[in-house]
Amino acid sequence: MSGHSKWSTIKHKKAKTDAARSKQFTKLIREITVAARQGGSDVDANPRLRLAVQAAKGANMPSDNITRAVKKGAGEIEGVHYEEFSYEGYGPAGVGLIIDVVTDNRNRTTAEVRHALTKHGGNMGETGSVAWNFAAKGVIRVVAERCDEETVMNAVLDSGAEDVQESEGTFEVYCVPADLASVSEWFRSRDIPLDSVEIEKIPKTLVELDGEEARRMLRLMEALEDLDDVARVSANFDIPDEAFQED
User: Which of 14, 75, 116, 237 is the most buried (most CB within 10 A)?
Assistant: First the structure.
């Protein structure tokens, strides 16, 4: 099982702390704002906005915050203008990184990302140097203890999803990105509790890490995702389970 999946599982567990939840709200609000700006404020006609609003509700964000973010994105009330783009770079041992950001200050974000990379043994890369090794997929996560395997498997077959894997007590359901909204809606209509619904960049090949390189990679991932302007980080590392134990 790839380090990508392990890191995603750990990230969702960390998101349950108050500090992490505050950062999560900040990132969700930015995603809602950008989605509404690009596709309009109609949730039914804007799949990206629908997913963002679903994620915000899943994180127990107050409805007033969601409504305000949608209105700001649609230009109905004044708000900050965000732009989104990606950096490509490398971590320890040449691990490839794609760092997706949403920011109102490109210079600040570039400096913060560069600092995090340098501090933890990484560096910036040229555009296209890493992206070739990743493929976008819709990913739906279901906590195994909240839903039995047969129910999830039947849902995968009937909903139009492509595949499912079990990792760290979580079922990870994969689909074409364009189908993510409809597949997740199908799961919800069957009362299957979803832990997360996201479009992720899945690595095609992996770099195996152990020892100090693995620990440095984990510290780099955490440092990058702690930045308010960073929406998500994709990486192609694979590490042993013991590297995820706290020091």
Answer: 237
Q: Is residue 244 part of a domain?
A: no
Range of the domain at 192: 134-203
34 within 8 A of 84, measured Cβ to Cβ: yes
Instruction: Indicate the burial class of 126 (C-beta count within 10 angstroms; 0-12, 13-18, 19 or more).
Output: exposed
In a domain, 41, yes or no: yes
**Contact criterion met (CB below 8 Å) for 246 and 219:** no
Reduce the DSSP state of residue 97 to 3 states and report it. strand
Within a domain: 246: no
Question: Over the stretch 49-101, which tens digit does the pLDDT of each residue have?
Answer: 998 998 888 888 999 999 999 999 888 888 788 899 999 999 999 999 999 99
Query: Number of folded domains in the chain?
Result: 3
Cα separation, 3 vs 11, in Å, equals: 12
Does this model's pTM top 0.85?
A: no
Q: What is the CATH number of the domain that holds 42?
A: 1.10.10.200
Residue 231 neighbours by CB distance under 10 Å: 19
Q: How far apart are the first and last CA of the chain?
A: 22
Alpha helices in 74-210 (DSSP H): 106-119, 149-159, 180-189
Burial of 12 (0-12, 13-18, 19+ CB in 10 A): middle
